[in-house]
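re: that chain from earlier
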Amino acid sequence: MSLTPTELAYLASQHLGRLATLRPDGTLQNSPVGFQWNEETSTIDIFGFNMESSRKFRNVAATGQVAFVVDDLPSVEPWRVRCLEIRGTAEAIEEPTPLIRVHPRRVISFGIEETDTEAHSLTLNARDVA
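^ sequence. v structure.
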């Protein structure tokens, strides 16, 4: 499994992420997206209205390179930040329902496992996954 149980629980508690895709001309695009963890394939599945006609879908079909981020600020007093970044490859799936399937290759998280740690003392959990 590429994500820890705590990271999976964090993803399940969130509704919105941001998907950065690489355009064929080498520029980047970042889009807010709905998502869900697909336990069967160990992937992030990105879905949405008119997905198959979106620029992000075409970018994934052309380049297959993505970064996906979910973060939040559960408290400002004290300051608490949580973040999960997933870098990897993706595929644009047309049937039966158009979606983008993100295959994690690198996972970076902070503030998710260390819920009681002071913000400036958080450690980065960065790892490559198979």
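The chain has a mean pLDDT of 93.
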